[in-house]
Design goal:
mainly alpha
Length: about 375
Amino acid sequence: MAVDTKTMEMLATEPDITEGLDLSWMENTGERGMHAKPGRRGLTLEEINKGSYGEVPLTSQEYTMAVRGGARRDGVPRIGYHVGKKSDIWSDNAAMLYEEAVQRQWSSATDIPWSELKPLPDDVERAYSQFCTFLTEVEFIAGDTPAYWLPQISNDHYEVKMFLASQIMDEARHLDVFRKRALANGGGLMSSSGNAGLRVIIEAKDFTEMSAIMHVQGEGLVQSIFRMGEYIATNEAEKRIFRLSAQDESRHVAFGVMHLKYILETEPERREEIHSYLEKAEPLIGAGGGSAPVAGGSPIFGTSLGMLFGHSLGSVEEGGKMALAAFRRQLNEYMHRLEVAGMGERRYRLPPMIQAILEPPKN
């Protein structure tokens, strides 16, 4: 096939399209030559956090959206990140918890066997609806609060940001599934809890204050509730709800405990400050308005829980005893988390009514 001579001449004189282009960005990179290989759990953050990419600055001076390990550019506008100290937000297990979160997502629409729901006596269904109304309310605040902190944390500490983003998704699914349970069996939504214990979380001015109150205390108490949820479940759908929710909640609690441990080890001078945060929130744990603490800090919630235990045990009186036993378990598990974090002395500074419920310390 003959080639047109005029076409050949035109191609030969075609201008260089790269003329005048600035290609200096091709040399302006971070560390090169670092190869990441999938590990036992796939290509996780652990596998790519090698070399300079895995070096987490103790204090971030990066106020733009530049990524850790990437090349910086001059003249880039600041975004406004202002929580720059690693110790203020760090937890050594954040990357691992994020990976677990994305690998263990579930759907309330398809992973819960809703067809297993069966009609319940009216008083029991009302109690279950109250129980789920309370949990829906709680999960709203547990999603709203991390969302407030996300845009304040530097991208240099991206592992924490990614974990908090996964928590927001978890909490959205929880408030979704408990709202569905309240409505799916004819009970409907019931009374608000009063919000005093929730407001103290979102009003926290410091990340560690927020995490100690929400992750270690609040979500720890909710995790205990999820674990006991199987005792009051009347069918496989409810059992699945509590199993999957407890699985998610364990990650949130683990983050908070390890953050508290990290900051006590790196900045021990903040110990009394952290005590002050817990002292502000702990009286609300059992604030039922009476002479004794109540489960969940709400008399409405405590009563509904007692009714559900009573239905399961066949005795209203035994249900009340079981609700109190469940509350004792919540508080003992809270104390255990503080001991793991390195604040075992907190036992002797708890409100007297809570101290009276705790098991003796283990030698």
